Amino acid sequence: MIRKIEQLMKYDTAGDPVSGVKWTRRTTRKIAQELMSLGIQVSRGTVSRLLKAMDFSLRVNHKRISRGSSNCRDQQFVYLASLRSRFAKRDDPIISVDTKKKELIGLFKNAGTAWARQSIAVNDHDFRSDAVGIAVPYGVYDVQDNSAAVFVGTSYNTPEFAVASVRRWWTSQGRHRYPRARRLLVLADNGGGNGAKCRAWKYFLQTELCDRFGMSVTVCHYPPGTSKWNPIEHRLFSEISKNWNGRPLDSYETCLNYIGTTRTSTGLKVRAHLDTRHYEKGIKIPHEHMRLLRLKQHTTLPQWNYTLRSRLA
After folding, report:
1. 44 touches 29 (CB < 8 A)
2. Is the pTM of this model over 0.90?
3. How far apart are CA 257 and CA 169, in angstroms?
4. Is residue 58 part of a domain?
5. For the segment 288-313, what is each residue's pLDDT rounded down to a tens digit?
6. How far apart are alpha carbons 141 and 151 in whole angstroms?
7. Whether 147 and 237 share a structural domain
8. Shortest CA distance to 246 belongs to which of 120, 104, 106?
9. Confidence label for 158 from pLDDT (cuts 50, 70 and 90)
10. Which of 73, 117, 188, 201 has the most CB atoms less than 10 A away?
């Protein structure tokens, strides 16, 4: 039953990357009706109890209407679901990407509790000057394979770092899992190093992925304010946070160990890598370089959906 519900809501589930709490746009009545159409007789109450067992949470109204909410939000969600279905049918790779919250490396308090013999003494203040360094975890979650790679940077969250992480995932995992694939679908948020308006993100995708591997890359961005619907948030980042709950990240080795040992009952597999390269902030891509990109915007919401193809084909 739980597997049936998960299958029904795989495109309509969002979650908190820290607490692991999930929620859905569908009502218990609609879920029950869809299950009945599949020959499973179930009541709304049973659906509600199953959702609670699956870590879904009820929500109440709050006066927190965001000024950045887009009128095209629902249209983009429908388009995202159709593209995901199209790529999945051909067994083409679909990845969800994002940067997890930065972490100070050192004896700093980490939220949560742990079953330990005794508590660990940590610094009473979180001063950056007391840190060994900073961890910038960029995740690449393979939606089809339920596996992930997390690249822990030590400098800045930049477009170059984001694309370098995707490229390293492709060379170490992606091309082995999808040896015949020539198309890649990327699900990304609307800001940060992989933002929809970021010219450097598109430029590095063209040069580091499309041209280098002769593949086409389709990018779909979630509307502003909807980043928690990105699968990586509740399928990967929340699980990492649970794994290191209450344990200080006193070294990069400790950080990588907790990321790499993150597992779930659904079979999630995670590889962790340290990226010590220094990535410069504020790289500007000249207009003449942007004009040479082989970029095609989609007719549906072109500001959020586009495809880059190899210039060597």
Report:
1. yes
2. no
3. 18
4. no
5. 999 999 999 999 999 999 999 999 86
6. 11
7. yes
8. 120
9. very high
10. 188
The number of folded domains in the chain is 2
> In terms of pLDDT, which residue wins out, 157 or 11?
157
Q: Which residue has 């549906």 as its token pair? A: 300
Greatest distance between any 2 Cα atoms in the chain: 61
DSSP assigned state of 56: B
Task: Report the C-alpha gap between 149 and 259 in whole angstroms.
Answer: 9
Residue given tokens 């477009």 in the structure block:
159
Helix ranges, 155-261 (H): 159-169, 175-177, 199-205, 211-213, 231-232, 238-243, 252-260
And the tokens for 251?
Answer: 């070294």
- If you search the block for the tokens 């596996």, which residue do you land on? 147
106 with 191, same domain?
A: yes
Least Cα distance to 187 among 69, 67, 87 occurs for: 87
| Domain range enclosing 191 | 73-308
| DSSP state, residue 150 | E
